[in-house]
Amino acid sequence: MTDRFDGPRDPRDGDAAAGSPAGPPSVAAGRAAPQTTPARRPRLGPSPTLAVAFLLPAAVLLGAMVIYPIVYSIVRSLYDAGGDTFVGAANYTAIFSDPSTLTTVRNNLIWVVFAPATVTALGLVFAVLTERIRWATAFKLVVFMPMAVSLMASGVIFRLVYEQDPDRGVANAVLTSVRDAFGSAEGHPDARPRENERSPVTAERGAVVTKEAVRPGQAVLVPLVGVKPADLAGAATARTAAPPGPGDITGTVWVDFTQGGGGQAGQVDGTEKGLAGVTVEAVRRGGGDAVGATAVTEPDGTFRLTGLAPGDYVVRLPQSNFEAPFNGLSWLGPTLITPAIIGAFVWVWAGFAMVMIAAGLSAIPRDALEAARIDGASEWQVFRRITVPLLSPVLLVVFVTMIINTLKVFDLVFVIAPGSVQPQANVIALEMWRVSFGGGGHQGLGSALAIFLLVLVLPFMILNIRRFRRESQ
């Protein structure tokens, strides 16, 4: 029997298949496996060299306009006003020891507490209202329009709005109009009795009273002087009062002065003017301040006190007749100057808050709102429990942005506050400019104030940046 021949044997096969341990050793066993190099991925975007070339100009500008001023201000804040003597932290200590600087810190605290909250709240209200009115576009345009005006121009506008004279200041014009709608605006602060023995009346504790006792059935004359001719331009001619009846006292209150000379003192002459709207009281003599009757003078100055019991009386014109009429509030005074400027700030930024919140409101799923209404929730409950929580990220962004803007406010305070009350309205940014360049000449303290303001603003900027990064991810 002969073996089957299947062709020439490959020496690398060995004899393992035949089960013979005597076959030649495998050559492949001692050879290393070839290493494969992974393919390099293609680069996406420009090369690092090209990126650096484009970023370098921006980095240089950032360093020249931001980094260098900050570093220089830190170094400058450690020196005195002239920049020659190293004083360490003395300028920072002065911030919290000087009364005027403490006033600026207090004012900034007032700004941070009230201005951002007011702007955010008004923006939320406006954004919700614009979804329920037909003329929403026009309303948004009107509210957002102040954003197109610079802060300097807004300050000029509100400087005129807050003028004390109601004929020029819109705020006081509105207040005086409302006040006049509910009460008389008549007042004669310049009127006074003649200072001589023959005058039948005299001044007493701000009021004008008759010198002699008056009984019911008598007529009295109350001559006054000192009223400006311009205030009498539309006044009627004074008349002698009609004879009184039983239990009545009549009389005339008029300006006892004839222009051009002539006339008789203490008598109602033909060209003299009556004082209209003057309150007249009959006060019982010996009875304290008990008022028996009250009347108001007619356009010709005449009055009639009726229903008086027998006895002696004193005819009195109360002090209220001689007080200056209400001309509004002193918006630019030391008491109201900070709230007035905050009002201007709210007017400028409420439109920005409204647009930001309205954008967030449009992204709220309407299904959640409708489901709550179907479940029986009122509109207030829907607003408080669903709308506001879903808008909380946008509200926080607006609120933090407004805090940063209030800490940096300068233009409005500088323009609106008069020079006499600017110390009461001062803020850190304005104080920094004032002590450095506005006549103070102390750039060391000004640099310290700048760094102090940067420290106050920096946490809120970091908070905003982190939120923007989280939203982008």
Automatic annotation (TrEMBL):
The keyword Transmembrane helix applies. Residues 1-44, 183-205 are annotated as: Disordered. Gene3D superfamilies: MetI-like (1.10.3720.10). The keyword Transport applies. The chain crosses the membrane at residues 50-71, 109-129, 141-162, 336-361, 382-404, 445-465. Belongs to the binding-protein-dependent transport system permease family. PANTHER family: BLL4140 PROTEIN, DIACETYLCHITOBIOSE UPTAKE SYSTEM PERMEASE PROTEIN DASB. This is ABC transporter permease subunit.
